[in-house]
Amino acid sequence: MPREDFSLSYSLRVRWAEVDHQGIVFNGHYLTFFDVGITEYWRAIGYPYPDALAAAGCDTFAVKSTVEYHAPARYDDVVDVLVRVGRIGRSSMQFLLEMRRAEADASETHLVSGEVIYVIADAQARRPTPVPAFLREAIARFERIAPVAG
Amino acid sequence: MPREDFSLSYSLRVRWAEVDHQGIVFNGHYLTFFDVGITEYWRAIGYPYPDALAAAGCDTFAVKSTVEYHAPARYDDVVDVLVRVGRIGRSSMQFLLEMRRAEADASETHLVSGEVIYVIADAQARRPTPVPAFLREAIARFERIAPVAG
Amino acid sequence: MPREDFSLSYSLRVRWAEVDHQGIVFNGHYLTFFDVGITEYWRAIGYPYPDALAAAGCDTFAVKSTVEYHAPARYDDVVDVLVRVGRIGRSSMQFLLEMRRAEADASETHLVSGEVIYVIADAQARRPTPVPAFLREAIARFERIAPVAG
Amino acid sequence: MPREDFSLSYSLRVRWAEVDHQGIVFNGHYLTFFDVGITEYWRAIGYPYPDALAAAGCDTFAVKSTVEYHAPARYDDVVDVLVRVGRIGRSSMQFLLEMRRAEADASETHLVSGEVIYVIADAQARRPTPVPAFLREAIARFERIAPVAG
């Protein structure tokens, strides 16, 4: 997706502890980077995780993650985590994510793409509960491209 | 998939450092568990990573990971990582994975399912290269269910 | 310290994700290994963490960690984490730890030594509280070398 | 130590994956934070790790780490990692580190203190080698308080 299709961009620098013997970020760590991006998304829409959800008696639980690896990130790379909400269902939300690295020649390298789908659940029972209206509204206000209802 | 559809089962115990404030394993760590299972798969077919591949001048690079979360693993849980090869393409291999926890009543809880797809690549150039014949043969010998050619 | 000075030995295998670009375990991960060893220590004395402590209204909080690095552990190494309690104070406990790798010639390589000191604290207020008598007794029964009172 | 005794301060935000079931950062992760601070230190003195060292045929290997835990960092905390070099020996360097959190009332909470001692080693043989003169000089220029020769 073009960069302007994402609503949020967050920069982070790859740590030594995240790079493996091949000199590239271990494949699982991208989900940590996605999670950092999603943290910033909640903050950006005005509902920092987990307080606003907790106040509404609910929490998020991951139900699916996908990562497609296009090019490796390396130690000390400054990379952008791009985030948007792609789809909001009755009790689920799909985040779409992409990571990019700016190059010296002003081009960008597309590192990974992926998604994380969460279910909104009752914080105690951990059973699915409808996405609260305040969240739907905050996301609708924030997104450049309206999430698909699904 | 039924347990007998997997060719390898490896047990591990969930560490304190892998569990988050919700008291459940952080979603990204399952890819580390998958990786541990895949390490054992290479060993089980007689080609421990990365030496046999390196001797053939090649290495593996992840191109896609998927995790579906069914039930959370918790601190100190002993869990099984189940592994099989689902598909072998010209230069790619798909691992299918599942994690389960044995319960006190002898039932099993299905925790997560997923896949990790690797491309076999030239170790230096990091460009795709055909899956070496010795690997195809070792996998064919090891698998209960023949991998799909893809 | 000689191996027989430790009361517990726990084996684990180094994961790919724990090894850095130098091909050796990242220095911080040894504290995760120490933590795994300490988990096994609590289990071995009959009080698996955190339930027995929680039942007594208390928990443990790390106050100091030290790691001395003698030789690096590498990917796929099977290593032993050795644990004993070195000192028990009024509200603190010092674990002494060592990690070793068995070599093909039956010698052992001493990888790291260290300590982790915990304070026993009230679980709610997180203020130091005396080490419960049941713990002191369980440790005294388990240890080959009586912990120093301190 | 007072904040002005440190030569470098680097801010980072605590990630969800770094916080454990107690709601606080797992004790081992502070060494990852220290490592991030040390990365920035090398950059700040003009010799980003590992290139300048590699060009001189050497690398750094941790020989000792210490962390003293004073107060816990929590999810989403913005924390400062403070770094200075405390001592330079013939072939070793001691980094002193501290982490702090700014509070709403403009006070600071002292989270942890520690040290990481590295040996400078030949990159191939991994045997200690004298600290290169260019490093000694860069550190001397950068530090507010002259490192102790040790």
Kindly describe this structure:
The structure is a homotetramer of 150-residue chains. Chain A is α+β, with helices and mostly antiparallel strands and 150 residues long. Chain A has a single domain (3-149), classed as Roll (Thiol Ester Dehydrase, Chain A), CATH 3.10.129. Helix content of chain A is 21%, strand content 38%. The first copy, chain A, is built from 3 helices and 6 strands; from the N terminus they run βααββββαβ. The first copy, chain A, has helices at 29-44, 51-55, 133-142, and strands at residues 8-13, 58-69, 78-88, 92-102, 108-122, 148-149. In chain A, strands 1, 2, 3, 4, 5 and 6 form a 6-stranded mixed beta sheet that branches. In chain A, strand 4 (92-102) and strand 5 form a beta hairpin. The longest helix of chain A has 16 residues, at 29-44. Chain A starts with 7 loop residues before the first strand and ends with a strand. The mean pLDDT of chain A is 96. The A-B interface holds A 22, 26-32, 34-35, 59, 61-69, 72, 116 and B 22, 26-32, 34-35, 59, 61-69, 72, 116. Strand 2 of chain A pairs antiparallel with strand 2 (58-69) of chain B, so a sheet runs across the interface.
